[in-house]
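Lab notebook page, bench 4
Experiment: in silico fold of construct C2
Operator: M.H.
Input chain length: 64 residues
Purpose: comparison with the prior construct
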Amino acid sequence: MIIVPVKDGENIERALKKFKRKFEKTGAIRELRSRKNFAKPSEKRRLAKEKAIYVQRLRTEEEQ
């Protein structure tokens, strides 16, 4: 359970922002979305490999 302490006179918007940040760090939404559609382990490996290649290509272009 996520607990966000709110001080007296603190803006509700700021407290909501803190809550959202903590909630994102837990990764609950990401996990729900990944569980919604099953992906085979081989497919996960292939996608991870493609992402690594893409990121590496971006970094080499950035260096040049």
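Observations: The longest helix spans residues 41-63. Helices lie at 12-26, 28-36, 41-63.
Next step: discuss at group meeting.
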